[in-house]
Description:
Order of helices and strands: EHEHHEEHHEEEHEEEEHHEE
Distance between the termini: 35 Å
Strand content: 25-35%
Largest sheet: 6 strands, antiparallel
Radius of gyration: 19 Å
Amino acid sequence: MQATVAASPPLAGQRVAWLGYAAASNPSVAGGKTAGLSRLAERYRVPPGFCLTTGALAAWGEGACPPPDLSGEIEAAYRELARRIGEDDPWLAVRSSAVDEDGEGASFAGQLETVLGVRGLDGLLAAVGTCRASAVAPRVLEYRRGRGLPGAAPMAVLVQVLVAADVSLVAFSANPVTGARGEVVINASWGLGESIVGGTTTPDCFVVRGERVVERRVGSKERMTIVAPGGSREVPVPRLLRELPALYDEQVLEVARLAATLESANGWPVDIECAFKGAELYLLQCRPITSLGGP
């Protein structure tokens, strides 16, 4: 896959870091999620974007709105991102990125907030506020306590162009139920990935060993998340689509190869989130599988 990084660093500073550049690849500056994606953006098709760093969020303080100078930097980064993709007000995905997120000991999967379908500067600022607040949500603090981690960690926020996915998927480079290595398990459904991650739909399941799809189960896929004015929303899946597999075998094998490659590069089994838009496969997240079933 081709990378989606910029040819030259745009509007770089201590409070804004762009994917594919050194600052965004530092977890203490950009958080674990952003750092991992920034490194991957050098080699894979990762949606373009920028990060509001831990320094930016510290400068934001406790107020509902950022100070004027920081607000100006956020607006400049937003306009630059819009210019780069040739859209005046692009749809965005705004994602929390704590400094210890996506580590080998704790993935924080599903704990911190992601806001999809964000548009406009006011919408962006509101979404950043939602992500900031999730750092001290009771479920997150309990998750941290259960893993022996200190209280709320410094937080960054990742702002990316939203891929209007035809199909979203989660893939594991080792079987998360049996623990079998060399067996890639893929769950896929229509639309954006929130319906899969949130467990509100029954996705298709594919199991791959080597270059063979050894198991296919077509899920009922009752619900799908779509981009809508004011954000994203869940809608019923058209009945005909429920009965069709969300992925062709060629796409299943493409995802399996990607998962195996990322496991080999990282040295540990991976849990990845991806999206197909047309024929293009986008990598949205890569983190360790922190627990595997089986013996």
